[in-house]
Task: structure prediction
Amino acid sequence: MDNYLEIGEARSLHRDLERLFAPGKSDASTLEQVKRLCESGMQTIEDPYCQGVLRAIEQHAVHFFAAEDPGHPAERTALGRVYLLILSLLAAFDARLEELEALGPLAPFRERADHGLTHRFGAY
Amino acid sequence: MNTRFLALCLSLASLLAVASPNAHAQRFGDVLGSGWSMQQQSTPIAALPAERAGDPKLAGTLAKLLPVGTDLRAEASGFRTLGDFVAAAHVSNNLAIPFAHLKAKIIKGDSLGEAIQALRPDTDAQIEARKARAMAADDLARV
Result:
């Protein structure tokens, strides 16, 4: 994350995702909205942990919102676990944003150094 | 030596008597009813042990989902499994559907998804049923 503005955008994205996964809020377009938000978040949020969480949410959402309801109880159970996992990922995303916010505006640069993210400029 | 062996045998026998197969089967059946298993539980809710149906933790969770003063055992009657009942309670709360309407549909033979589709056609019934079942399984896993 480059600054607080970006954290603000990430928080907004988190709220939108939470709304889409909240009980009672699903319709036919939900999966497309989730995919769009996750893709957009992965492009704009530079924190690798957040990117990983968004990627995982998108992948699990594709499975969770699958059109066919599985007939076998075990598969229905697995889908239930996927939903709980998505909720946990959203909580992890929120916790990471709090962590970045608490570290301050320069934190992202320290974080990147900690993560060894030199892919943009190559290794020195 | 013989006396000690006899005493050991008696102890083992008493342990087995306490942990009878029926007790194990009942507890295992409760877990099956939570929806986390390969098989569906066929034990009617009325046959569940009283301590299970009246579990304070579960009652506390359900009290938040159903109107104040709801008789949980009475409302649970007619559901095939405890998991089905808790999932229906979640749907009722999530989608603001009166529990009695939902229960009437399910007892008539509708699946949870079909009941939601009939009562709230504006939502994705299948997805809402999945969410409710997941939440119910989570509740039952905590009990």
